[in-house]
Amino acid sequence: MQTNKGKGERKMQEKKYSIKTDFSMLAILIIPISVAVNFVGGQLASILKLPMYLDTIGTIFAGMLCGPWVGAVAGGLTNVVTGIANPVNFAFIPVNILAGLVTGFLARKKMFNVWWKWIISMILMAVVAVVSSAPIVVLVYGGVTGSGTSLITAAAMAAGANIWAAFFGTEGIFQLLDRVISFIICRLVIQVIPPRTLVKFGCGMNYIKEKDKK
Amino acid sequence: MENYIEKIQIRKSNKLAGLYPSTKALIVLMYAVCTFIVNTIEVTDIGLPLFLIPQFLVILILCKASGVLGRCIKALNTVAVVALIILLVQTFLVPGGDLIWRFGILRIYERGLRTAVSLSFLIMNIAGIFVWLFQTTENKEISRALEDSGMNYKAAYVFTSTLQMIEILGRNSKTIMNAQKARGVETEGNLIVRAKAFFPSLVPLILGAVISSEERVLTLEARGFTMQGPKTHLFELKKSGWEGKAAAASVLITVLLLAGRIMLWLL
After folding, report:
1. pLDDT greater than 60 at residue B146
2. What is the predicted ipTM?
3. Cβ of A35 and B165 within 8 Å?
């Protein structure tokens, strides 16, 4: 608990980040939880027949609480683990890593504190997700991966749309919705985590209200 | 204690399935290289890489020889669905090259057919060899092999813990969902109703897991997890004895295939 205590003491000063302190004991334990949440979120989305993947909630959660590097590990590990059951997922490792990195850097820049910053962050996260997954879907899988949204992409391609345009059009809308729901869930969870627990996380200080800091 | 240690060991009678995980990883890598070489061999007038299809038999033979054919076919089914969708979409939707076949609104073009065959069977082959790897190797073995090959013990712990966590949270999410249903949260209906059910199921799940991880930190610390020094293991990884032969065979086949491919180019 050495590192955690150290963080508590200099909480009021300007925070310095390093990869080593990012991976505190608590952060190491958050990674498995994030991966499992990604997994369960995706399962739940398909049980409820929602047209989104919703399988990056854990990655976003890890990024928001513990910073970019923990988020990236959680994201990468998710696709490694889901790849064990379905190796098609291995190709999407970079997409999930990038999702964790971007969320983490946004969290460090305190981009999740005010409502108008939320909107910017969500759009940015959706754009990154679409732009990073587009080359993989188009070049590795030829535009179609067999998921719900890829049927719409296929329909657009059949109607004569360019493969890239078809992908960006359908994927863009669903990714944005996906990020909005994922973000709201993470925010709801973080809001109810008591401050005494929040301070132990790398970026946790950013979510503690001013009156609680005293 | 003696009994417990005996119980957690993994004993495999099959020599192929019992290969050391790093040897299996080498086989996977070599097989992937072979697949890409075979993909460049184009036959028929329009240049289809048709040899990828018989190559897939190698995976089935490998699974059969390892004694896990049944489980492998189950896992391969999900991959086959993706490959089939890719095959159909690419065949019928990608224009370019000569028109080969038409029936009503369905047309097949040369380029579409070529990418369709190449892409779908590349995916089948590469995903197939990974399926063999993971169906013959237990997660415990993978994490132990990772640690033996110099990976940090914390990283190996994260890997094992992740697999356990998925099981635990999966169970918890069912409990929470049933509890919320009992309280009157609707899980059926139109899209908005279903989307609204997503929140009360997931938020308590994440929150509970985060709070309990605080206690797990204390538990691990109390067991000396962060102690510096050599670690002991209860689970021992055994070699099956065929490691050398298997590695040599896979490398040899790849080299021969590569040599054959270069010969074809030169002739």
Report:
1. yes
2. 0.83
3. yes
